[in-house]
Amino acid sequence: MSFRLRVxxxxxxxxxxxxxxxxxxxxxxxxxxxxxxxxQATRHVADIAETVRSYGRRHGTWAGVAARVGQLSxxxxxxxxxxNLYGQVTVDSDTLAKRTARPVVSPPTLINPRPSLTxxxxxxxxxxxxxxxxxxxxxxxxxxxRCLTEDGGEPPTVTPDAYGIPLPSAGTPxxxxxxxxxxxxxxxxxxxxxxxxxxGCRAAADHSACLVQxxxxxxxxxxxxxxxxxxxxxxxxxxxxxxxxxxxAIGAVLVLSVIGTAFVARxxxxxxxxxxxxxRRLADGHLDTRVKTTGRDEVGELSRSFNRMAEALExxxxxxxxxxxxxxHELRTPMSNVxxxxxxxxxxxxxxxxxxxxxxxxxxxxQRRILDDLQDLTLAExxxxxxxxxxxxxxxxxxxxxxxxxxxxxxxxxxxTAEAAGPLPVxxxxxxxxxxxxxxxxxxxxxxxxxxxxxxxxxxLPGHAVVExxxxxxxIAPEDLPFVFQRFWRADPARDRETGGSGLGLTIARQIxxxxxxxxxxxxxxxxxxxxxxxxxxxxRYANP
Length: 545
Ligand code: ADP
Known about the structure:
The structure is a single chain. By secondary structure, this protein is α+β, with helices and mostly antiparallel strands. The protein is about 55% helix and about 15% strand. The chain is rod-shaped. It binds adenosine-5'-diphosphate (ADP).
């Protein structure tokens, strides 16, 4: 799985879990809130149902209830729908508001405006006239109220009487008005029917139950029908109303999370991708490849490390190329010399002589020395030069070097002396340090004219042992001083090659000294002489290996 994909998935999981948890908590809180408001709504339902029922009782009809329902709907901010027991809609506030009626939420509340007769315990039921009278009064009141309502009037208010029957407290007016007359007529027409129904109960075993039933049956024929009250609509079910925006918000947050996560993953993996591409280019040999480094974070640090590595590789390659060019250049001259002599010999231009072969031998020796030195240098620079370290006396080494070079010094008529304040115990490879000292003494003798002097000194400094090679030779020009330890560098290439120098001696010497944690430096005055000074630390390690 790619890094980018991993970052993407990880961040996405965190985002989804966080969003889900937030949504769950808010839905739970919302549900609790809704629960509380639903309890309030239940009380509302009772109030609305009672208002509608009172209307039916007072008006004796559902005609004109629409205006009341419209008012109730507006006051309670509730959708109200009234349906009769056959499913026919009496009124719907949605239709009143001129919108399509929405599906209703069950269960409905039953609104029954019909009164039921309440017979007081112990009431005298021997005669049925009381019930008949109730029926008559009720019938009359209902017909009157309905007539008034249909005429656009307002019927009188009703209150339950002793039998629980809602009647105008002042009784139904008998004033000869059209509605009053209509009510009286209706009562008269039904009187015989009512009497039959009531007297039919005389033979009944449960007299009072039969009377209640008979009253109910008769009242049913003229009182307003019961209605089912529905409140609200499916689509404004509070939970779904709240859940919808919540779901939408969750969806939006999720979409944003996905986009944001993709962006973050892309942003995070970009530097890594460019590093991968850069590594490939580097591996393909484009050593000048670098990456942009931005920021101080880990990725920025990685980019900087990459650039440092690329620089080191480029530097190493450059050094290698220079070395090869140097080697080729160094070998070409002695090789050309040998070739020239051999061709001249072949053509008979020069006679074969002892001196000529001596010369050829010299040239070949020089080539071999260059190659030997080169091998030493390569090993030393790669850290592969084997050192056999022992404890030895540096003062003694100085004396040994002096003795070894005495013959050469006498030959060149140069005075070679040594001043060693020994013993100077150091820890290191004695042979390699003799090689260093030998190189310095050889150079000193080589660049000192007859009559001059070379002095070797060994002395202690705090924490250090120092060896110095001082000559009264030609010296080195100040502008040349920085180059003396560079490979193949010579102040005067033609002359120095004649003297048999490879131009690598000081480079190797410095590497060996560095490998012994030492330092080597030179001070020189042109025409007066030079001083090469090598300093080794005397650490406890060297003192007690
Ligand atoms: P070489 O083998 O050619 O002597 P080195 O690395 O030992 O190479 O020395 C490099 C160059 O430094 C020499 O060619 C010479 O020009 C200069 N040099 C070294 N030692 C001395 C010295 N004691 N006096 C003057 N020049 C010196």
